[in-house]
Design goal:
The complex is a heterodimer. By secondary structure, chain A is an alpha+beta fold. In chain A, about 55% of the residues lie in helices and about 20% in strands. The longest helix of chain A is centred in the last third of the chain and has 44 residues, at about 615-655. The radius of gyration of chain A is 33 Å and the shape is elongated. The chains are: A alpha+beta, B alpha/beta. The interface between A and B is medium-sized, with 31 and 38 residues.
Amino acid sequence: MLFRKLWRTMGLYKAQFISMVIMIALGIGIFVGFNMEWVSIDKNTNGFLEQTGFADYRIISENGFSKEDVESIASLTGIDKAARYLSVQADVKERDGDTISFTVTENADVSGFALMGGEPYDANSSDGIWLSDKYASANGISLGDALTFRYKNIEFKGNVKGLIKSGEHMVCVRDETQLMPDYKTHGFAYISPAMYKETAGFEYYPQINVLSKLEKKKFTDKVDKALDTTLMILTKDETVSYAGPQGEIDEGKTMGSILPVLFLLIAVLTMVTTMHRVAAKEKTQIGTLKALGFKDKRILRHYTSYAFMIGIMGTASGIALGYLVAWLVLNPNGMMATYIDIPDWKLYLPWFCVVILVLILALITLIGFLSVRQMLKGNAADALRPYIPKKMKRLLLEKTVIWKKLSFGAKWNLRDSMRHKSRTLMSLIGVVGCALIVVAALGMGDTMDSFLDMYYGDALHYNSRINLSEQVTTEKTNELIEKYEGDYSASVAVQVGEKAVSLDVYHTPGDFVRFPDENNNFIEIEDDGVYLCMRLAKEFDLSEGDTFRVSPYGSDKTYTLKVAGVIRSVSENMVISPEYADSIDLPYTINSIYTKTAKTDISSDDAVASVQSKQAIIDSFDSMMELMNLMILIFIIAAIVLGVVVLYNLGVMSYTERYREMATLKVVGFKDRKIGALLIGQNLWISLIGVIIGIPLGAAVLDYLMNALASEYEMKTVIDVSTYIVNILLTVGMSVLVSLLVARKNRKIDMVEALKGVE
Amino acid sequence: MQIVEFKDVSRIYKSGDHELKALDGVNFSLDEGKFVVILGPSGAGKSTLLNLLGGLDSPTSGKIIVEGKDISTLSNDELAEYRAAAVGFVFQFYNLVPTLTVRENVALVREIAKDSLSPEEMLAEVGLSDHLNNFPSELSGGEQQRVSIARALAKNPKILLCDEPTGALDSETGVLILKLLMSMAKGYGKTIVIVTHNQNIAKMADVVIRVKNGKIRSFDEQQSPMSADEVEW
């Protein structure tokens, strides 16, 4: 019988019940969803990297390695597997302009791939090509098709035998300037070492890839000893395929931290207030049950199971919502799947989410338990008496002159707010939370946009970037620079401490590339030192005037550089002028030319490896931003739903609590509209105060988030005026809308009924 | 001068197939300045009658004419205007706004009534000058009912409607309240309608209407009503 009553109770407090379930679902959904996102990226990519033998270390030598070299490495203790490896950019003869990461590994267990279709890999095949399935499908290439790759004027001709995905090419970009894969123009392919040797007539492997669990320091020492020379060794972190997803994971962790926790917090707080109110309204019923002879324990169990039911339904739908949120980001047709190429995306519910879910469920049940226990206090007669809200006390404000000047409505609302403090506070928290999340989320978009505008609008003034091929002569380079009236740059891979960093030499008389400092002012690259990007300056704790040492890979020389300044940069690099490079005798080879000439007007040339238009770079960054925008959108929608539910719930509560007062006003002769206006007035004030508190908090949270993302982006936090306006309109609009919904109810006030009974 | 007229007024409550005739073809009229008592057992329809007269409810059929105006077909907002201007209410449970002070509860009517009276004066009249800044919960029942009377009169209405005004009070306080009501009504020339099941109150009335089963059983005009002091309580 009591169970039947439980269902009826749910029906009776439908609005409260539904809103509690929605709030818990939303809090849990956002929390689970955003944390599931990064945990799933982590598990999916790591699983795939392990499956395809993604190398832990890459030993690099321009001179190439011999069979003996790899054998001596493989025999070292602590090294699981090692293989000679080649991955270079090759042209696809049949498809003009396309490039392929042309890859050979001597041992398919190291830096290998997963077969998605066709024949399994055959290390002795003389004509087999194992091609990226995404490149194949983007370009209509099928199994059995003939393809020719051209590298260093050697043509490798073969037939597509298998379609594959590879850990080494999980983020398949041509080079660091390309942020997003474009399978229409760039893919990757493996051929067998046998075919490589046969066709090329030599075995040139500039890389040994190694699977090893050793730490970098130990590994480096061992390898240096074994090969008797100091070589460039890259860790996983220094490859795009590993660092790219890792960046997404870090970003996800940041997004999954503060904001979703805020959602959870608001949900739990609202639950506290709502449960208390429901229990208070049930007080006479509780008393009746008690008077009938039900034991306290039984009554407690009855109402606690009501809270538990809310918790179960909220948690269950929260998990479902979490899966939806994670799926939105990680679905096979989404941006993440374009960025990271793995066979399939599974969603993983992280263990800490399960723990938190259980805790939340326990907490909700406890809240229900405590609310009812409070009503059960004393004997049956006490319990039978209806719950009486606190007596009115005079406000401090009433002693001031201002009070007399306030309108009746303002006084009424102020006193009501003070009488029902928890309700008012919760409304306020709901609005603050909503405003905060909207400001932080939109501000994140603003920050990104403003950075992109600054960087691509003001910093980069070229139309095309020409990437020179590796074998180009200095004369040819100078000829091209003159022909296209270009600025140029050279990248030197250097070692700073244990880290591989790109030292870029920029000659920019045409100002086609400019460098913004921390305040977004463009600075000249002077000839007296190196300009570090913010991340490196922070990581190595360097500031203007400091000196540090770098050593270029493939050389045993070290150079001392003096810090001349700090710049904002997209990639992690440092910049010097050619004059400074000359003054310290640092050798470099120009590899990029920046020109106003459009991409289509640049004639094809053996010296030109590829040409990128600035627009293509912007586009690839934009598609990168799509993910961020999706997350921002999810946050904003969730914030609005949260705000609406919290305010509606509290609005209904306020309406019930003031029912008698409103009925009295109505009897006295107040019109429905006027009573409605009073109610809306209260919400409007709470919203305004909420927005005023929420905006600076949102800005602070945004600052915190951008700091947390500082290892990913070097962006100056910016909040547009439009964000403030949108936020105010959205939050206040939402609040007014909800009040209108609630105020509409006052037409239904039954004056006659309401006036009976005791206050 | 006639101030209220009920013409064949019925109020039928429907719930499903079931019909409840709360009032069934009621006819009567009241003159201005009279002290009217409506008597009857519970469920007889007396509260319905009062609610209709007060504009809290509309009749199913028939006409209610107050000061020459038919209020039976008014819209919600027009009814609110009518309540604001023409009638003052006093209820059994006072129905004060708990979050407003005594003064503010009376001043409330200034928001809606055009020629309202000064709240301080009205409260002085009911003897509550010392409690202007108290909240209702800080007052006794009798005091709360006085606030309620002050509020009803502050609107300066022609008619004062009282639903069991002494119902929640002990008899001593009840008499005081009745005396207050009568003297105020006489002093300001109001028509007072009191609904009660207390026979004694009827002895003070100019007009006694007895209601049973939704019909008027008797309509008596008493030529020499007793004063409150003469009535044995």
